[in-house]
Automatic annotation (TrEMBL):
InterPro entries: DUF3817_TM
Protein name: Integral membrane protein
Species whose genome carries this gene: Microlunatus flavus
Classification lineage: Bacteria, Bacillati, Actinomycetota, Actinomycetes, Propionibacteriales
Membrane-spanning intervals of the chain: 12-33, 39-61, 68-87
Segments forming domain DUF3817: 7-92
Keyword Cell membrane carried by entry: yes
Amino acid sequence: MRNALIRYRVMAYVVGVMLIVLTCVGMPLKYIWHNDSVVTVAGIAHGWLYMLLIITAIDLGRRARWSWLRLLLIALAGTVPFVTFVAEHYANKDVQAKLAWNEAHPTEPEAVIADPQG
């Protein structure tokens, strides 16, 4: 689950930064100065990277056993500037808590395998 979390966090930051560039740099350039080059490049990049974010979020959500509602909210967070970072923070917090709990409470099959007398 740790590797899935790392992949998701990287994609969340990349998508969040691309969306900020698109909205805070590209849109003013397009609508004020009539230069749509940044919108074209950042828009296409954000679209493709957003699809990778969805894939990494589903992978992490499956491993962390998130509800479909939580996955939907995390997916939608990639479409609102700055909200991606908030969603990433809460996803990271949740997964870190689950990882800590799993380390403190080993599962039953592992305990049975580790006990030579059991």
